[in-house]
Amino acid sequence: MAEPRRSPPAPAPASPWAARDRAGQRALKREAVLRCAAQLFNEKGFAASTLDEVAERLGVSKPTVYYYVDSKDQILFECVRTGLELLQQAIREVDGAGGRAIDKLVAGMRAYVAIVTQDFGMCVIRVGEDPLPPASRQKLRRMKAALDHEFRELIRQGIAEGSIVDCDPKLAAFTFAGALSWIGRWYRPGGGLEPAEIAEQCIRVLIDGLRAHPDVAVPPARAASRRAA
Amino acid sequence: MAEPRRSPPAPAPASPWAARDRAGQRALKREAVLRCAAQLFNEKGFAASTLDEVAERLGVSKPTVYYYVDSKDQILFECVRTGLELLQQAIREVDGAGGRAIDKLVAGMRAYVAIVTQDFGMCVIRVGEDPLPPASRQKLRRMKAALDHEFRELIRQGIAEGSIVDCDPKLAAFTFAGALSWIGRWYRPGGGLEPAEIAEQCIRVLIDGLRAHPDVAVPPARAASRRAA
Hints:
Two copies of one chain form a homodimer. Chain A has helices at 25-44, 51-58, 62-68, 72-96, 101-116, 119-126, 134-161, 169-186, 195-208, 222-228. By secondary structure, chain A is mainly alpha-helical. Chain A starts with 24 loop residues before the first helix and ends with a helix. The relative contact order of chain A is 0.11. Mean pLDDT of chain A is 88; it is low at 1-5 and 223-229.
């Protein structure tokens, strides 16, 4: 299936070097470096991106960039970690809000789409931990596994309370993670539809399915029926 | 969401250099080079893969590999092209078989999963055209767009015939393309579930949804209801 081209260059964030108040600006400047790098990685891919270009986009020198970060690898690690933390925080908030598991799941899906269509969340999907050395990769994979666990747990709760159809929670979680993560790959800011509208259409398919009516019977797979026979 | 680690090294295909009958073996040998490279790219990523390793796995010299292919870029192009051709052929067969659009769509989804869990199809998903020069990238993107068009067309037909729920065909196609393509990313041969079983569970969610009963109401998004008001 076609994936529309990567985003056109997003406008670089307003440079915090322009700010007059210098107190407590270090964290803000570091975040600006990370966000600018995340945008670059998302547009061009990790391998093709350079810290020279990050510096250029921010209007600062390369040594200035190195004052805030150690290496391109460290930047990617921080970008992906930040994206995963946003996702974890969202699912924890959704879970803490109470209510039925299916409503939590839908709220979690909405938050997921909102995050993977922004810089750090998009970086989780488009770049991810693959280019990093083993130790960093492992840390980020552990965070992903924890997130995955939260979603599976919601599905398990939904099945137990009768709001979610009886299914394999692992495969169901992979199914919607795939559908929602894909949005982070093809979404272009300013490309027509807003993330919240995309999320609603996609979630509707995942919650209600594509079949028009329950009486539109779908033939079972030949292999599966042979196995069942 | 966690994506399980990449596959462990798949067994290299039986080397056709061992074959005694030499007539007409060139195409077979070239295909063996491509398939071996696809496996390597899928396991290690494109950047980390070398033609030395392809030669080593096939038990031949590097010049022998160069007798069949010109470059690593050409190999990737051929692998992705082959994967996309398999997908195109499958959807054409499904479409030619006749019947209702929803049944064609389900048959097309099954074929999609079968292909993206094998070497060339997996290469479309895990590596894709991104590392290639613009001209090759464009050719492959055109093939993807044509494939995408076929799936959207099936959804349009299904909506018209009343077997598929009224939805945005583009977003519905992206939703299931994401869910099914994701399988090509996390699937590990020998990892427990067979592709056909994974496909059935995933397709069931996409066709029937996660909601246990139509009367399990799901609250609309706050932003969406505000916009509708």
